[in-house]
Amino acid sequence: MREFDVIVAYEDPLKRLGIKAMLEAPKDLKFNLYDEIRDLEQLRKVIVSLQPDFIVIDATLNADQSGIQLAEYTRRHSPRTKIVMMTFSLDEQLVQTLQDLEIKWVVFKAESVENIKKCAWRAIHNQPYISKVFRDDWYQDLVPVALKPNEYLRKTLSKTEIKVLNQVALGNTNKQIAEYLFKSEKTIKNHRHNICKKLNISGSNALFKYTMKLKDVFH
Fold first, then answer.
1. Using an 8 Å Cβ cutoff, are 86 and 133 in contact?
2. Residue 35 and residue 171: Cα distance in Å, rounded?
3. Looking at the structure, do residues 41 and 81 belong to the same domain, yes or no?
4. How far is CA 2 from CA 6, 27, 32, 53, 119, in A?
5. Which residues form the Response regulatory domain (predicted)?
6. Which residue range forms the structural domain that includes residue 192?
7. Tens digits of per-residue pLDDT, 123-174?
8. CA proximity to 121, closest of 54, 52, 47, 50
9. 105 burial type by CB count under 10 A (0-12 exposed, 13-18 middle, 19+ buried)
10. Which of 76, 111, 139 finishes a domain?
11. Domain stops at, among 85, 118, 139
């Protein structure tokens, strides 16, 4: 059985109970939760001594910057710990701070139970998880735009298909596209098939070649 030590740095007792319930694991996994620690100084000591696998932090802990400071402290004193940040909003400054701290797991506080479980699963497997409501803000400066959709593409393809097409234009594999869009490789393959069908193109590399021929391809 695989065991994981998890610190929950959250003031709201109901939210802590909710997180605890959400981390009910399959039989082959066990989460050791440390969720009763309130004092920040005590939290810091436990982080240093325990070197936990995960820490779940409320970005607005103590209604100030304590959550961010705790994340910074964790990164310095327990670098192997995976930090999961929970927040209601994500402005440009917070995005930059979290990216500077190399935090890969950002969860909307009102996220569904199923999606928080998905976040836990992805964290265990070292795969990033950014709640859907934050993804556009999170990735806007990280992912280059290789393809500027023209009017024909906007009318013919869905928004998700345009995102897939942009990833194809960047030369990314189905696996890389799936990780970026938080979908399965099978779903990405289906999207590519539908795009080709809508654009009336065929062939293993036809989609990439198509993006290279578009007048609006740049960079």
1. no
2. 44
3. yes
4. 13, 9, 11, 11, 17
5. 5-124
6. 149-213
7. 988 888 999 888 877 876 555 566 777 788 888 998 889 889 888 888 889 9
8. 54
9. buried
10. 139
11. 139
